[in-house]
Amino acid sequence: MHPAIRIEGVTKRFGDLLALGGVDLEVAQGEFFGLLGPNGAGKTTLISALAGLVRPDVGRLAVMGHDVVADYRAARRLLGVVPQELVFDPFFSVREALRIQSGYFGIRDNEAWIDEILENLDLVDKAGTNMRQLSGGMKRRVLVAQALVHRPPVIVLDEPTAGVDVELRQALWAFIRRLNRDGHTIVLTTHYLEEAESLCGRIAMLKQGRIVALDTTANLLRRFSGHTLRLRLAPGTEPPESLRARLSGAVGGEQALALDNCEQIESVLADLREAGCRLVDIEIGKPDLEEVFVRVMERG
Amino acid sequence: MEGFRTLFYKEVLRFWKVGFQTVAAPVLTSLLFLLIFSHVLERHVQVYEGVSYTSFLVPGLVMMSVLQNAFANSSSSLIQSKVTGNIVFVLLPPISYREFFAAYVLASIVRGGVVGLGVLGMTLWFVDLDWRGPLWILGFAVLGGGIMGALGVIAGIWSDKFDQLAAFQNFIIMPLTFLSGVFYSIHSLPPFWQQVSHFNPVFYLIDGFRYGFFGTSDVPPLTSLAVAAGCLAALTLFTLWLLRIGYKLRA
């Protein structure tokens, strides 16, 4: 079985800027994959190369085994892209835009599926409305709908929830999760790391055009972020020497201590008791992707 | 093929939806030209034997409308799509560069044809025209629309901003169409400018188109046909090459 996406040694320069520096990546069919990185890391360039909007200087990309240049027709039929920019054609209504997009993909009578997408994205009431008259959130939904008109098995969403309210974000993710359960491969870029953490099974982190981390979300959290013990000591008490080196970030009197595992809590508390430190508050912080992201970016 | 069909349909629907601006307005402009020039020059100028100046003027104005509107259609559609970013809707699907070219150019020919018919229909109230060779008329209209549609694709792809497109239109398209014999026969020009006019491809389009009405022309119609077909072929090859390499469309 071909991978949903195969990227081999892709390099792209824009003048002096190295946008992608030899990216290798494989995404298996059915995965929910996250592509993370700071602004300018190359996420959108990589997606654009996959979609045929950008031509790599070196390297190859394939969607479900079809090369995006040599076999572009097949590759594009298998790929749905939700672009990052909020773009729309002001001449048409929502339904017209979806019909036209279907036709571009060679589908003549697509009404049943268009109705289903409109229903799922809560756009039924807006089907006859001109694109210009829609709110930003509504336009974003139409972009998602446009990417789905040809039922692509591989769906790429480039920051789909940027500037979207909570309600729509949740509805959108419920729909995308369902598509993933139905077998669609999802590739997502986002700056909302908690979204990536809860949705993506695997994550690649990009920095300056290179992949600096690639693993399952669970492994990344394990490798780069452990539990954190947050302590607030009674005023006037100092932590014992044995713990002082491991404590960091006294914010508002709260000190954080990184743990390799939960069993270490016991010894920390014992050390504090022995030193006569009185605790005002204690909290156990779970690993989070934000911390992983920061550490990977610092290291990479 | 469905991709081409839909893109063509979309391009036609796009201008039709704003028909007041894309069809009615240029028809009115041409009528104003006709009223003013015929009023001023009707009694002073006769170009062809037995043909009034107003009758002489009408085919020129019709062809000028075809040309300018064919250019406007593809160029404005592309620049708008590029500036607003919705060009991705056309670039993401499996549409080949040949389909892309054919859809934009054919839609331009349709827009030019609709405006040309509008101008012709309105002017028939004022003048009687001969219809010596309808096939010549149709042939030159299609060739002219195709040439300008292709030029519009080139200009739309090349321009990054509206003012660059406006420059292309004002400094290339407008002089070529105005200085092509729409309002006069080149035989009325000094010899030097007559020679210069022969390097203007639009001159051959207007002259050949007019031949279809009156059976008289400044140069033999087959020469005009050959020049027009040659121009269209050259522009087609050039535009297809630009689209194939993805010039300014696919980075």
Task: Label this structure with key terms.
heterodimer; A: 300 residues; alpha/beta; Rossmann fold; Alpha-Beta Plaits; 2 domains; six-stranded mixed sheet; four-stranded antiparallel sheet; 14 strands; 28% strand; B: 251 residues; mainly alpha; 76% helix; globular
Descriptive overview:
The complex is a heterodimer of chains A (300) and B (251). Chain A has 300 residues and is of the alpha/beta class. Chain A is built from eleven helices and 14 strands. The radius of gyration of chain A is 24 Å and the shape is elongated. In chain B, helix 1 runs parallel beside helix 5 and helix 2 runs antiparallel to helix 3. Chain B is globular and about 55 Å long. The model of chain B has no long low-confidence stretch (mean pLDDT 91). Chain B is mostly helical and 251 residues long. At the A-B interface, helix 2 and helix 3 of A face helix 1 and helix 4 of B.
